[in-house]
Structure formats: C-alpha cells, structure tokens
Amino acid sequence: MRIYKIFRAPEWAALERDGTTAGAPVDLADGFIHFSTAAQAAETAAKHFAGAGALVLAAVETDALGDALRWEPSRGGQLFPHLYRALARDEVARHWPLPPGPDGAHIFPEEMT
User: Fold this and answer.
1) pTM score, two decimals?
2) By Cβ atoms counted within 10 A, which residue in 54, 66, 86, 110 is the most buried?
C-alpha cells in the first residue's frame, strides 16, 4: 500500500540534499512524520497547505517503513499513518509536483492511487 507525504519546496529540497528528513516543523513538534492515504491527501492539502503554493507529493510503500509506521486516529476518528522515525529519500517510491489550481486547491496526479 502507498501512503503520501506532502512537502513544501524547501522541505523537499532538504530531503533531496540530506538524504533523510525528520519532517516539517509540525512533524518535529508532534514527534512523528504525518502521512495520508490516497483518500485523505486532498483534504490534508486543503486543511494544512492552503495558500502554500506549489508543493511536492511523495509516495512511500508502507512495507518499506516497518514497525515505525503506526495507524492512529486523527481527523474525525480516521486512521492516519504516522512514521516514528526519519524518512530516507530512497524510501520514496515516486514523487510529483503538486501545483495549485485556478481555485487555489492543489491538483493531485491521477496516477497516485
């Protein structure tokens, strides 16, 4: 199964440069890296990244994350994937640009599922 992490451009550039990331400031504050499922990603973008401009969407296979990945309740009781360790760049199976559309909502790639 694939899960998705939304990165701001500087966060993605840092992962590309450093090879690992402990996540964005919210991830560091919460003690885990926030991910979303394909069904949750657009709502996550709208809620947490509105007005953020162009983003990067990274897909990660859950099998690559081992026991450090936990599914925990969040918005409305939905289970969200949380990674309790750093994410390595080589664990990202695929990534896409996530541009804002004319209405400001980010445009997700059709092939992300």
Assistant:
1) 0.95
2) 86
> Taking the domain 2-102, which CATH number applies?
3.20.170.20
Residue ranges per domain, the chain? 2-102
Question: What mean pLDDT do residues 60-88 have?
Answer: 95
Tokens found for residue 108: 């997700």
**Res 76 pLDDT > 90:** no
Cα gap 99→28, rounded to integer Å: 25
Which are the contacts of 2, defined by CB distance < 8 A and separation ≥ 6? Answer: 38, 59, 60, 61, 62, 93, 112, 113
Is the pLDDT reported for residue 41 higher than 90?
yes
pLDDT bin (cut points 50, 70, 90) of residue 32 is very high
